[in-house]
Specification:
single chain; mainly alpha; 15 helices; about 0% strand; elongated; transcription; Znf_put
Length: about 325
Amino acid sequence: MTHRDSHPWHVGDDQATRYAEGTLPEPDAWSLEKHVEDCARCASRVSAAVGGTAAGTVLAAVRAAVLESAPGAAVSEEAVPGRAAMTPSAGAAGPTQAVLGGRPVVSRLARLLWAAGPAVRGAWLPAVLGVAVAALALSYGAGFPGARALLLAIAPVVPVAGVALSYGPHADPLHEVTAATPGGGLRLALTRTVAVLAVSLPLLTLTGLLLPASGAPAAAAWLLPGLALALASLALASFVGCRAAAGVTGGGWLCAVLAPMAGAPGGAATLRLAEQLSRCLDGVAAQGAWAAAAVLSAALLTARRPAYDRPLRP
């Protein structure tokens, strides 16, 4: 390795073989996959190793069939950097080589958007914006005094819904494939959960700050409950699937905070909601309980990590 080499290490023959056989430890596999995105030499070595397996033969056949059915997609050998890593002489393994050979054909932005999930694509972001706008309209347009309390009641469910929509067979047509890859499974679920939280937490908290308190807890009081419910949903999803888990955690929260409103007349209903939210969110004891719930959910999720290596229930 020369001083001009931008990579501090390269994939050895033993690593490439173990990766192809599926025996390389998961963290090492992640590191390898990231490295070969920018290193054509190592991509060629890994491609050759994969091409020598039974899966390599199948992938090569799939690649040939795809190219035959899409003649307009044909690309010359010189047109794609690192193309040699995808040719039969370099141990081609079909679609695997299209990813591993040289620079990836799909842009980094496209892969980031796919990994981030519904936080940046689809109808989820407009739905979150709709919740924020509706709360502001209720408060300043309709003069509804309990807008912040209502927002705090709904806000913890928003990340839960985002998690439910972002991962699982209903969210990914290739869920069965991605769940079995080192970059998929729990790693992908957590990536999408972080994207969901990164959008919903600041947006809804800022909206809460713009609303009159009217006896409701602070605008940021829902952050720990939102995190705890999202982690609990991920942990429970390893047993029953994302949508069922979201129904249990999100539905349980809504029942707990909205139940006191049942049968209460107009103004009293808003007051009861604010009081119930204060019991659930205000004070060191309540926030400490939510922090403990988040830690316990994270511990359970860690213990259930192997379940994410297989496709989850719908």
